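Comment on the following before class.
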Amino acid sequence: METTPAPAPPAAALTEPVGSPDAPVRSGVPEHGRVPKYYTVKAAVEELVEGMAEGSVLPTERELAERFGVARETVRQALRDLLLQGRLRRSGRGTAVAGPKLAQPLSLRSYTEGVRRRGQVPSRTLIGLERRPAGEALGARLEIGAGEAVWHMERVLLADEERVGLESTYVPAARFPGLDTGFDPDSSFYAYLRRQGVRLAEGEERIETLLATPREALLIGTPPALPMLLLNRLSRDADGTPVEHVRSLYRGDRFSFTTALREEP
C-alpha cells in the first residue's frame, strides 16, 4: 500500500475534512504519523463533496488522479471508501454526491412510520408471503410449539423509490389467520395490527453488522461487499405475549439508527 509521511500530502488533502474540530480524533492518522495516500485523497474528495449539491457528479477517476498526482487505483480506493460510507453513490453518469443517511429511531414504530417522519415516501415490494411450520428456535421466540404454523412475509424496503433494505416478518398464523387476504403488503404492518386490535407494548432489538448474502444483495440492489445493518426484533403485546419476530437488513451506506438514553433510577 502506498504511504506518505503526514506532513507531506498535497495541501488539498489536509483541509477541513482532516483537520476540522468535528472530525474523528486525529482524523484517522496513526500514531507513527504515516498516512496511506488513498486516505489523503479521500479527505481531499470529502472537501470537494462538501461544496457540491446532492446528485452532482464528481470528476472522473482519471481527472482526480491528475489533480492529486496519484495513481488511478489510489483514487479508486478512496472513492470505494466514500461509497461504503454513503457519502457517494453510483449513478448512470458516474460517481455522484449522495444525500444524507436515513436516521431511523429505535422505537416500536414501523418502517413506514419512521420514513414518513423523515419526510420521505416509504413503500415496499412483496417478495413472498407463505404459511410454514415454525422451527424450534422461532417457535421458542414466539412462544409457540415447534411445527405450529407461522406466516413468513418478505418485503424489499424502499424510500423515495430507492431500495434500502429487506424485511422478513414472522407471526403466528393462529393469531392472524386472514393475513394473506386482509393485509396490503405495501402498507404498514403495524397499522394492520392496530386494526386487528393488537397494541404493541414492548420489544427487544439486537443490532449487528454483516455482509448480505448474494440473494439479499440482489434483492436490495447492492454489491455483496457493502456492509449491512441487521436488526432482529421481538415485539410483545400488553399481555407480554410475543406478536412478531422481524429480521430487517438495512444498507449501511443509507441508514443510521438513533435512540434516546436516560439514566436508570
